Amino acid sequence: MFKPQYLNVHWYGPHSVEDAKKLDDPNLVLYMICGTHGIYGKSVPLYIGKTFRAVSQRLGEHKWIEDEPDPVQLYAAAISKPFQAWNEIENDEEYSIPDNRIIEEVESLTIFAHQPAYNARCKGGTQSLDYDLVIFNTGRRSTLLPEISSMYWYP
User: Fold this and answer.
1) What is the CATH number of the domain that holds 111?
2) Most exposed: 1, 3, 128, 150, by fewest CB within 10 Å?
3) Which pTM was predicted?
4) Does 126 score more than 60 pLDDT?
């Protein structure tokens, strides 16, 4: 029976590096750094990551940002609780922090589907889940696909 787990990943941004220093909402558990890549172009995802601390703290660990040819932009996201129909989450004003397993699965599938240039982990496609996962990227998602699914991206 086809009954995937649905998650909404709501993105906020873009933020400059300076403005990103104010991103201290603990519910923002994913982040994406976009910028210029010599082959892929401008305003493309360069790195997607998760954080269990404030995004502003995690961003400081990416020293390579200073060497980028153009200013980078940062996006941050919160992940909804699992749902089966949109009306289950339509009145949620904010998303609380999900289980670590969910954060890691969302990060992994998002990296695998988009192949950001500076991510080394999660790009090989060896991950598999024991259930089907569908992620909706909503909000200010930059060039991320609006929907990704483990049924399409994982073997």
Assistant:
1) 3.40.1440.10
2) 1
3) 0.92
4) no
User: What's residue 123's pLDDT?
Assistant: 72
CA distance 105 to 100: 9
Between the alpha carbon of residue 148 and those of residues 25, 36, 80, 88, the distances in Å are 25, 24, 15, 20
Number of structural domains the chain divides into: 1
**Which residue type sits at 113?**
A
Rounded Cα distance, 131 and 150, in Å:
9
The range of the structural domain enclosing residue 72 comes to 5-153
Three-class DSSP category at 58? helix
Position 82, amino acid: P
The pLDDT of residue 128 is above 80: no
